[in-house]
Amino acid sequence: MSTLVFLEHHGAGIQKASLGVLSKAASLDPDTSAVIIGSGVSGLAAEAARYGAARVFIADDPNLEAPLPQSRVDVLADLVASHGFSNVLFGASVLASDIAGALAARLDAGLNWDLTGIDLEGGALVGTRSALGDTVLVDVAWTAEPRLGLVRSGSFEPTERAAAGTVENIAVNLQDFSTKAKMVEQAHAEQTGPSIEEADILVAGGRGVGSPEAFKELEDLAGALGGAVASTRAVVDSGWYPYQTQVGQTGKTVAPKLYIACGISGAIQHKVGMQSSQVIVSINKDANAAIFDFSDVAVVGDLHDVVPKLTALVAERKG
Amino acid sequence: MKIAVCVKEVPDSGPLRRIDPATKRIDRSGDKSLNTFDLNAIEEALRINEAAGGGEVVLVSLGPERALDSLRKGLAMGADRAVLISDDGAAGSDLVATSYVLAEAIKRESPDLVLFGQQAGDSDGAVLWAAVADRLQLPVVSQISELTIDGGTATAKRQTEFGYDTIQAPLPAVLAVSDALNEPRYPSLKGIMGAKKKPQDVVSLGDLGVPADRAGEAGSRTAVSALNPPPSRGDTLKIEDDGSAAQKVLEYLIERKLV
Ligand SMILES: Cc1cc2nc3c(=O)[nH]c(=O)nc-3n(C[C@H](O)[C@H](O)[C@H](O)COP(=O)(O)OP(=O)(O)OC[C@H]3O[C@@H](n4cnc5c(N)ncnc54)[C@H](O)[C@@H]3O)c2cc1C
Ligand SMILES: Nc1ncnc2c1ncn2[C@@H]1O[C@H](COP(=O)(O)O)[C@@H](O)[C@H]1O
Q: Are B202 and B68 in contact (CB under 8 A)?
């Protein structure tokens, strides 16, 4: 058995999720390699060695500068073909999901996503994932090699486990279609205001808030409670509220004492960012909303009625 | 422009969604509807062609024959026709098999653009477009929250963990849209009446020339071995708002010393 872990990097650092997967993989399989794909990335190899990579493959090419998936699929497919890895693992992200999905097709290999656990059974990789909006836990397996897995972010903490980390530079051969999509403007970390990660109380608004103006209702409640306002991707993508307030898989992970979810359906990608909150109160018009499955208090009602009333009551109590 | 939109029928959300312990597949016997995330993809296809003053929108789906009921919603919105790949041999297809079958069906249409929704409400995979694009050897852009099609080029804004990228791709391309890209229209009465008469092709794997070992369980590389209940968060206090919900929430928060 041998395992390859894709290490995603942004700027000068490797993503924590990738390092978590690497150290977990290395704990199961001593023959674990890592691959770093980009432009000017050889300096990152040492970090991979610190988290358990016996070998570190470096694909360094100016054409790999932009973090786009398809060129990375070409590199990974060649690497798997020449080394015959049994397992190829990824920490979930927007980029990694696109790479893993395409690599599955390229290699006709099975991909299990949203893994929260991986283990060995009779020498073969098996996984655990949750399904149907976390209403069921599923043990999953692969029926052939290579076994491709996308690990849900936050599942494994990076732990240092020194390994040889022998560096090997690999040749880069890109397919024509893989370089057709071009990065015109790459995301850069936006300037930071007060961070929602620090707040003890978050009042979070989803698309159910209905308009950017109506976020004032949530700001008032947050003000009365001494908290901050958070949001969902649907809200941020609509331009209603700033990106820095987004909670979830592609946003921030928060764990306040109190999370009040207003007009949020409770999609799994949102849940992963807030499920560690101590108390979750949710307000939704739809009695079947998934958010109620993991709430301590579930209010079936219109947030435009409940939120202003609650604000008034809290303000009155605080005098 | 000819636009193929990949859409899926999914079980309605709610308490009845479950996995059948016998087959370890999603129980598809209950109420079903068109995956809501796919409505944004249909809407975008309609808008692109409306802006261009013409074109064709073809819905492409893999699923049981009953899924035609759900596809009709897309036809009622304004899509021109539907292609449903339906075959007992395709049941239980995973990503590898589904992407293979869909790609074969899309190749037959040779569209200028292939659109996907942001995720299937039942599988939550958000990985299928990348697999299909690889099989079609076309550029792919996902998570699109703003899109312009200008001549033969798509310019897309998409969210990643670091903020928003802008990416350009020449057509034909495979694009997956965010559910915030647009507001899907409701079908008009006329649209609903007209939907039944629009072409709805049900094709088999044989019709597409898909070998039996590329679809269904034979064509799949993953398996579900056991089902377990998820860890529970404990009891939920349910409050139906009759005007007093805010008061009840306040009492709960006071009890927990949160106010
Ligand atoms: C790869 C990927 C990454 C993602 N990353 C993230 C992420 O980081 N964060 C994130 O949040 N999402 C993320 N998503 C998107 C996620 O899947 C959902 O689409 C999103 O969370 C939905 O946001 P929402 O709950 O605001 O909107 P919706 O799902 O539209 O829910 C709105 C809710 O409001 C309720 N409502 C409407 N009106 C009212 C009212 N007046 N009073 C009370 N309730 C009302 C409705 O019943 C509904 O339940 C990601 C998706 C993908 C594919
Ligand atoms: N069986 C299917 N037939 C056609 N399109 C599908 C099917 N399953 C998923 N899709 C499309 O792929 C998108 C992502 O699905 P998934 O990767 O399963 O979350 C959906 O929003 C649909 O556009």
A: yes
